[in-house]
Amino acid sequence: MIRIYADSTNDLTRELLEKYNVRIVPLYVRMGDDSRPDGLDFDIESMYAWSDEHKSTPTTAAFSPGDAEDALKDAVDAGDDVLFFGISTEISSSCNSFRIAAANLDWSDHTFVVDSRSLGNGIGILIIKAAEMAKEGNMSAAEIWLEIEKLIPKVRVSFVVDTLKYLYRGGRCSAVSALASSALGIKPKIIMSGGKMTVGAKYRGKPEVVCKKYIADLRKGLLRADKEMVFVYHSVGTSEAVCEIMKKEVEDLKYFENIYETVAGGIISSHCGPGTYAIMYLDTEE
Predict the structure, then answer these.
(1) CATH number listed for the domain at residues 2-46+59-152
(2) DSSP characters over 174-186
(3) CA separation for the pair 255, 252 (Å, rounded)
């Protein structure tokens, strides 16, 4: 049997995690002395309230190898192979923590770690593809891992942030630092490239107008994407109008078999802030 594990930053819905039997190992969000595990039940609004009150943004931390060992023991005891999916190693050490855990349990030969070079539902796309391969039952974990490695460069992740302060304070996107001093009114498109975040287009205008510009810029790529799925993704605090525009614009393409609406969890929200939204998909070209 092949088991699938992932860190909490993939932000798949509860329904998708249950459908594909994905075991989550949570990262942590720290607000002063308060450290909370990320996950589906993480209270995003209280985190934003803490940030506003303290004029600071939370810090985040990967799980420890010990946390990963606790999660991995069931698979080891059952003699199952494992595929683990983590946020880009340029951003977090969760992949390395899982590798250490597998080594500590003498299970490295049965553990295949996928450095997604991505975040959010970009990881989720890879998880779903791997789970579908595993369900077919005619591929080993090693073979699935090799196929997923081929897909990683084709995952397209970009998002628009309403405020730069979370990314700026968190230091995860160096390009934001250069932009911040002259960013009045700018809503930048942040792109995942080579496992890192960089600034793409710089939009101005009302949120609804910016959202339509963002989707128009993605249209060519969306119409050559893998038709199986696309993710419409946003953080808590994104306006209902923007969410509806994203969903409608993607639906009007009449192209995708599945349009998944998802919400950013604690880790992604702590770095991107309220009002962040994204479209994530798998390209058919590298």
Answers:
(1) 3.40.50.10170
(2) HHHHHHHTT-TT-
(3) 8
Cα(116)–Cα(87) distance, integer angstroms: 6
From the list 33, 41, 10, 35, the residue with the least C-alpha distance to 23 is: 10
**pLDDT value, residue 184:** 60
* pLDDT (tens digit per residue) in 171-205: 554 544 445 544 567 888 999 999 998 889 999 99
pTM of the full predicted structure?
0.93
Q: Identify any residues that bridge with 202 across adjacent strands, giving them in sequence order.
A: 188
Where residue 284 falls (left for φ over 0; alpha for ψ -120 to 50; beta otherwise) is alpha
Distant-in-sequence, close-in-space partners of 152: CB < 8 Å, separation ≥ 6:
114, 115, 116, 117, 118, 126
Nearest alpha-carbon partner for 119 in 84, 158, 154: 158
Q: What DSSP assignment string belongs to 59-98?
A: EEEPPPHHHHHHHHHHHHHHT-EEEEEES-TTT-SHHHHH
Which residues lie below 8 Å from residue 53, measured CB to CB, with a gap of 6+? none
Q: Tell me the CATH number of domain 154-283, given options 3.30.1360.120, 3.40.50.2300, 3.30.1180.10, 3.40.50.720.
A: 3.30.1180.10
Distances in Å between the Cα of 103 and the Cα atoms of 95, 106, 143 are 13, 5, 21
With a cut of 50, list the residues of the chain below it in pLDDT. 173, 175-178, 181-182
Distance of CA 89 to the CA centre of its chain: 13
At 177 the pLDDT is: 47
